[in-house]
Amino acid sequence: MTETADPAPSAPSTIPEILLALQAVDTTADQLGHRREHSPLHDDLASASSAMRSWEQRRAALRSRIDELGASIDEAERRGADLLAHRQRLEQQMKTVIAPREAEALMHEMDTLTERTDELDGHELEALEEQAALDDQLSAHLLGEESLRTRLGQADAALANEVSDIDNQLAGLSVDREELRAQVPAALLATYDRKRAAFGVAVARLVGKQCQGCHLELSAAEIDTVKDEAADTGVTDCPDCGRLLIV
Questions:
Q1: Residue 184 shares a structural domain with residue 151
Q2: Are the beta carbons of 66 and 131 closer than 8 angstroms?
Q3: CA-CA-CA-CA torsion sign (219, 220, 223, 224)
Q4: Is residue 2 part of a domain?
Q5: Global pTM value
Q6: What is the DSSP letter of 217?
Q7: pLDDT for 105-149, tens place per residue?
Q8: What is the DSSP annotation of 104-133?
């Protein structure tokens, strides 16, 4: 037995049906637009981006400090070489000195050079130790780069895919919307646009005695009035909320 496909829903043909269909399209578009702007994936991407920026800042700080220490070590070695050359000159000079007072002055100067050299060596050793520790920290820090970049790439791709999907849906709705709007009389369409700007949902059905827009029940007299007003077009205004009421 051959299965038959379900028949496609018929296109709205009356003004009330067209208005309800137009409202449905606009409501769906609003929901999609809200989802596009407020998707949790925005938060995921922001979190991943923040983590990546923090990681890069830490990497830059470590490298900057390592470079500073390297420059300090180079300067200490240069100054140490100058002090050594100076001491060697003094030692050569000591070999030719005869006067005790001159020899004493040279010895005092060499002692001062020794103190300065020891102090310089101490600073250089501290810098070397700090540099080695920071090198280890940098190596450990760099190990986290791949996972952070993967997380960032995945978050960016997920958001881009969702936005693309929403944009495609919105494009389709835009076509449907224009087709529906073209079927609504200009004056009624202007009223629809005005009420939609005011209420968001511009069109509501009358179900029993209740307007589905404001959910208030109409009195018996109001029911008679709206039925009379909607006799020709099937559309009037809700006496309570002012929305277009499909009777």
A1: no
A2: yes
A3: negative
A4: no
A5: 0.73
A6: B
A7: 989 999 999 999 999 999 999 999 999 999 999 999 999 999 999
A8: HHHHHHHHHHHHHHHHHHHHHHHHHHHHHH
